[in-house]
Specification:
alpha/beta, about 270 residues, elongated, 9 strands, two-stranded antiparallel ribbon, 10 helices, seven-stranded mixed β-sheet
Length: about 270
């Protein structure tokens, strides 16, 4: 089997060409350009066996990142395992907004990422804003180990904390709180397609907003005056999240759209009083 035949086999499994290129490139340690110009290059027996295994697992819905063990996010190559969500490109919208906020703050601003998973958000912020003091929290020891490993490999010094939301941050105050919490409705029709990703990081109650409600309620006690809370949520949850913030007295409620133009992030400044 050569490169061209391997890609043809991927088509019989129903894989998009983009997925097949990423997987085969990872398998062979080659770029997409190399694959295009070396379609007659052979795969050895071990590579052929692994290729067929990967195709079957990808066809079963296992994310590409779990097969290759890596995913690029905001310019950083992250190690990814089934203990963490596969980082989505839309979440870069949250990072970009966080950087906008930090650009209005003096050096040394304190940031915390709640529910950090692979560490994608926290590490991207630390990478782009080296003078920020970034912390990250996750309830899962396995997820936090992945995040910490990413930080060590990338040489980015984030303060990792184990626990639920603000629980391990008693007495600490921040200039910015960011979170991509679980927000899918329990029993949602899309969940079977996400069955290989950690449920803990996906679902949050009957309307998907339980985690967001808790963060909105607890965040004021951990924000400096003028501090911001930025939240990622489902494409149709923006009005509900904005209403939660407004009802709790948060100020300057604002929004950001994702790459597809959907209302993906909502944020506001700490309420007064």
């Amino acid at each position: 089997m050569n490169v061209a035949e391997a890609l043809a086999l991927a088509r019989t499994f129903g894989l998009p060409r983009s997925d097949a290129n990423v997987l085969l490139g990872a398998l062979l340690g080659r770029s997409r350009t190399w694959l295009l110009t070396h379609d007659d290059a052979p795969l050895d027996a071990a590579q052929q066996t692994r290729w067929q295994d990967w195709l079957a697992r990808r066809a079963d819905g296992i994310p590409v990142a779990y097969l290759t063990g890596q995913h690029e996010f905001h310019g950083l190559l992250l190690h990814v395992t089934p203990d963490v969500l596969d980082p989505r490109p839309d979440t870069e919208t949250l990072v970009d907004w966080a950087l906008e906020v930090l650009n209005t703050r003096p050096p040394g601003a304190k940031v915390v990422d709640l529910g950090t998973g692979s560490g994608a958000i926290a590490l991207a912020i630390q990478h782009r804003q080296p003078d920020a003091v970034v912390s990250a929290v996750d309830l899962s020891p396995a997820a936090l180990a992945v995040a910490q490993g990413n930080g060590e490999r990338l040489g980015l010094r984030v303060r990792w904390r184990l626990g639920a939301w603000f629980a391990p941050l008693a007495g600490e105050h921040f200039d910015l709180v960011v979170s991509n919490p679980p927000y899918i409705v329990e029993g949602d029709a899309h969940l079977p397609a996400l069955r290989h990703e950690p449920t803990l990081a996906l679902t949050s109650g009957a309307d998907g907003l339980d985690a967001i409600r808790q963060i909105v309620a607890d965040a004021p006690a951990h924000l400096q005056p003028g501090g911001w809370l930025l939240l990622e949520h489902g494409h149709d949850q923006g009005p509900a999240v904005a209403a939660l913030l407004d009802a709790a007295g948060w100020r300057g409620t604002d929004r950001r759209n994702d790459l597809a133009g959907h209302w993906r992030c909502t944020g506001a400044m700490r309420p007064t009083g």
